[in-house]
Amino acid sequence: MKLTGAILEGFVKTLLLPKFDGAAPVPECHREWWDACCSDYKFVAIAAPRGSAKSTAITHAYTLAKVVFREAKFVIIVSDTEAQSILFLNDLKKEMMENEDLRALFGIKELIKDAETDIIVEFNDGHQARLMAKGSEQKLRGLKWNHSRPDLIICDDMENDELVMNRDRRIKFQRWFSSALLPVRSDKGIIRIVGTILHTDSLLASFMPKERDKDTRQRHLKTYSVKPSSWLALKYKAHDADYSHLLWAEKQTEQDLKAIRQIYELKGQLDLYSQEYLNNPIDESNQHFRKSDLLAMTDADMERRLVYYITSDLAVTIKQTSDHSVFIVWGVDSDGYVHVKHLVRGRMDALEIADTYFMLVKLYDPVMVVTEKGAIANSILPGLLKKMDDDNLYFRFELLPSNVDKLQRSQAIRLRARAGKVKINKKADWYDAFEEELLRFPRSEQDDQVDAFSLIGQTLNKFYEAPTDEEAAKEEEDEDFVKSGFYNEGREEQTGY
């Protein structure tokens, strides 16, 4: 008999649910997960919120059913640490050894191997199944048992906050998944992934439906995509904006969820609530850069006289998987407003970077060009100086110390924008991508535009001086004089009268 979602639900209700602590009625989302896991898709990825019993429903109940229904002979359970995977394995072992109804119904005899990370269970008729616990990024190459590779891989919360907040570690982890975990399964092996999205560039997030994808569908608290090849992806949140729909109302009521949210709010951690309960690592009400702070330049602003600067974040490469180089042209008007007027972004080599600098300098005649100190800046500086001589075009090139704490680095421009003193050319074709990166920071997939934007605040703090009272009064006096029209009463240039 092939295991289906309906059979799995009956299995849980009959043999497992009576033993669960504080058991609640099976929610609709569990039925959807079991249907998905029992489907013919080789890969199923489910992003579910905290408190939805995702590990119980999938890592415990589904895995157990696959083993006792003899649909899986060699199972690998992977979590962010080996210790966590061992806990999952111990729960399964305890169920198989202590649940007498389960043992009697499926003929479970004994464990012929009982190691901390590796067990082999034998049935009365001699059938055997093996279950192993592994941590993320552990060595997996060459795993075989009885000449067979794993036919079921369960991935439960493989990522953690420390991993996802470091771009190099994210890349390394995703390479491990592709080069080590995926190839270890048998030809007919399946993978079931469950967890919570901790970062917009996390592995789990990469499997999830994107709003722009044609195969993406939505229904209340669920977003899902059905890809004809081999992937099924589902993403859930605990509730919608007005709590009119709850994922598991019998387990987490509106009052429960609001109380939990209040605890996060009191700690100033609404972003974590959004991450853990809504599968959105960025909380819109607590964003580092808020959409309401990003003011649009008006047509009049586009014509204002500005003192221009260029800030840049450099990446000397043309590889498609590498960072971009970003150049932001911005200016300050007489009232102290910052106007972000132009942005160039692309993967460039050293020559293209130099050419971009000179192109922008010729167009805007900036007071200075600013980038961070470091190996990349040092590598392009000799060529830049030579090009200045060759083109007979010189400009001030400043290097600011690098600050590894990106949040701290961005504070100056963030606070200036929060004060309503930053305007941006929102009509430009580069603006949408720029805004998306800012709003997702510090959990955005890329942060090169944020880095160049942050340099605006650092440049103003270091190099820009507000006019003195005397200078401001003189400027006002000059403006009044110009507005009065008296400057037109002098000698006429052509006639001399």
Description:
By secondary structure, the chain is of the alpha/beta class. It has 2 domains: 5-249, Rossmann fold (3-Layer(aba) Sandwich); 291-466, Nucleotidyltransferase, domain 5, CATH 3.30.420. The protein is 41% helix and 19% strand. It has 17 helices and 17 strands. It has helices spanning 5-16, 28-37, 54-68, 82-98, 100-106, 161-164, 167-184, 203-207, 254-266, 270-278, 299-303, 350-364, 375-391, 406-418, 431-440, 448-463, 469-484, and strands at 43-47, 74-79, 108-114, 118-123, 128-135, 152-156, 190-195, 216-219, 222-226, 231-236, 295-296, 307-313, 325-332, 338-346, 369-372, 397-400, 422-424. A 10-stranded mixed sheet has the order 3-4-5-2-6-7-1-10-9-8. Strands 11-17-14-13-12-15-16 form a 7-stranded mixed sheet, sandwiched between helices. The chain is elongated. The mean pLDDT is 88.
